[in-house]
Design brief:
Layout: H1 10-20, H2 28-48, H3 52-61, E1 70-71, E2 78-79, H4 81-93, H5 109-122, H6 127-148, H7 151-154, H8 159-162, H9 164-175, H10 180-191, H11 205-225, H12 241-245, H13 255-258, H14 282-295, E3 302-309, H15 311-316, H16 325-328, H17 332-341, H18 352-355, H19 358-364, E4 367-371, E5 380-386, E6 391-396, H20 409-419, H21 425-436, H22 445-450
Parallel strand pairs: 3-4
Antiparallel strand pairs: 1-2, 3-5, 5-6
Helix pairs in contact: 1-10, 2-4, 2-6, 2-20, 3-4, 4-5, 4-11, 5-6, 5-9, 5-11, 6-9, 9-10, 9-11, 10-11, 14-17, 17-19
Length: about 450
């Protein structure tokens, strides 16, 4: 339904909350979940710091940057803060290994944390203030995402970019001490820069979305702090974000922006990926790996693979004739192919080399997916037809890493280690420890130093 704005206005109510909420209102549980998100995203940024997309972005934008007062995670160079935000966003998302909220399929941490780490590399920020700003930014993204899902997503927007910008603006605005009216202007300036389309899934441009939303949100806060104004109703106005970006259906519920505002930052909705690809193909990978382990399967034993999946899976991940590793991240065929041919699904399995490998291509050709309304989005029904005549099945309704089977703190730390090749092992361990106790840091610069290669 289309919700009616509160008498005060949805945009202003959210801005008031973002500008005035006291840190002690955050529970210990939510603080810990926020630390989990930051451990995860820093690991992802380190893992993507030397990706080709990052190198191209630096080469293209670097000559036009301002004074190099900031740093990007996992890089030695200096950048201006806005460019550092962009680079952080690209590096932390390019492997599609960052967190996802299944309630709206947004990667909420990348745009928010990318801007925050850039800001904190150029300005003194305590760990406690950093953590609180992150929680508020995350909450802004998730609330607006929930309010406009699924219509906004179905219209073709990649919400990580188009909605992540609000979180970056909120988080930087909070660190800059914006009062409520200026915070509302920052949200309005974020809304008018909202962008990111799903047609870019499987290309470098997808990682540009959180990078640009981090950069644009940061700039929105800078502009608002100097008195740059925006319209009064950026979310609920008749030509505001919700109406404009939900397509012909115009379906949204802005009451979800303000419901339990100040009581629940929605961090419990977040999940962390065990596989670097679209979250909706994780059930297929998980189920196929379980079948391999249970039956000692090899690729040569498998004649055909049948997958019953939720309709959203084929909407997002139906890329079949692929030649690039980034495309593999959005291919249900490749998800089953690597699990059954390679018996693993790490970053290497989504490389250009693996995507074009003969054994993986042969297995992909045996995969037939079918959309079924009876299968949940976090589920799959796998049928393997073996060459010896046997038929093996696996039905899964909760994949590893998702809400009902979350990764543990130890698993997140190991995921971090697996990605931190740009750091020495001792530096990696020191950084993991510092992130788990982030809110006790006197200055985030000490943590950002650890995330810089020696």
């Amino acid at each position: 339904m289309t919700a009616t704005a509160t008498p005060q206005g949805v945009s202003q109510a959210l801005a008031d909350h973002l500008a005035t909420q006291r840190p002690e209102a955050i529970s210990d549980r939510d603080r810990h979940e926020a630390r989990r998100a930051l451990v995860n995203i820093v690991g992802c940024a380190l893992g993507g710091a030397e990706h080709e997309a990052v190198r191209i972005a630096i080469a293209a934008r670097g000559p036009f940057g301002g004074p190099p007062t900031a740093r990007a995670l996992g890089r030695r160079e200096g950048f201006d803060p806005l460019l550092a935000s962009l680079i952080n966003g690209i590096s932390s998302h390019v492997h599609d290994f960052d967190d996802t909220t299944p309630s709206n399929y947004i990667h909420p941490t990348s745009p928010v944390a990318s801007a925050l780490f850039a800001y904190a590399s150029a300005n003194p920020v305590s760990g406690a203030d950093f953590l609180h700003a992150f929680i508020l930014g995350y909450e802004a993204v998730t609330r607006i995402g929930n309010a406009t899902y699924p219509a906004h997503y179905q219209a073709g927007w990649h919400s990580t970019g188009s909605i992540g910008v609000f979180g970056a603006a909120a988080a930087i605005g909070r660190l800059m001490g914006l009062p409520p009216e200026q915070m509302r202007h920052a949200l309005g300036l974020a809304a008018t820069q909202a962008a990111g389309i799903r047609d870019n899934f499987g290309a470098m441009a997808k990682s540009l979305h959180p990078g640009r939303s981090a950069e644009a949100g940061y700039m929105a806060a800078l502009l608002a702090a100097k008195g740059f104004t925006a319209g009064p109703t950026p979310l609920e106005g008749p030509r505001g974000f919700a109406h404009v970006t939900t397509g012909t259906s115009g379906t949204f519920d802005l009451s979800l922006v303000t419901r339990d505002l100040g009581r629940d930052p929605l961090l419990h909705e977040n999940t962390y990926k065990p596989f670097p690809c679209g979250i909706v193909v994780h059930p297929t990978i998980d189920a196929c790996l379980q079948l391999v382990a249970a039956h000692g399967l090899t690729a040569e034993m498998i004649e055909a693979v049948e997958l019953d999946v939720a309709p959203l899976v084929l909407d997002l991940c139906n890329q079949k004739d692929i030649t690039v590793g980034l495309q593999g991240k959005f291919s249900i065929y490749h998800a089953a192919g690597i699990a059954l041919a390679r018996h693993r699904a790490g970053r290497e399995e989504f490389s250009d080399e693996t995507v074009n490998a003969a054994d993986v291509k042969a297995m992909r050709a045996r995969v037939t997916p079918r959309a079924s309304d009876k299968v949940p989005e976090d589920g799959v029904h796998v049928t393997l037809r073996l060459k010896d005549g046997r038929v093996l099945t696996k039905e899964l309704d909760a994949s590893i890493g998702n809400i009902r089977r979350p990764l543990s703190d130890d698993q997140l730390a190991q995921k971090f280690r697996d990605q931190a090749e740009v750091l020495t092992p001792p530096r990696t361990e020191a950084l993991i420890g510092a992130l788990w106790s982030l809110d006790s840091a006197a200055d985030m610069a000490t943590i950002i130093d650890l995330a810089t290669p020696e």
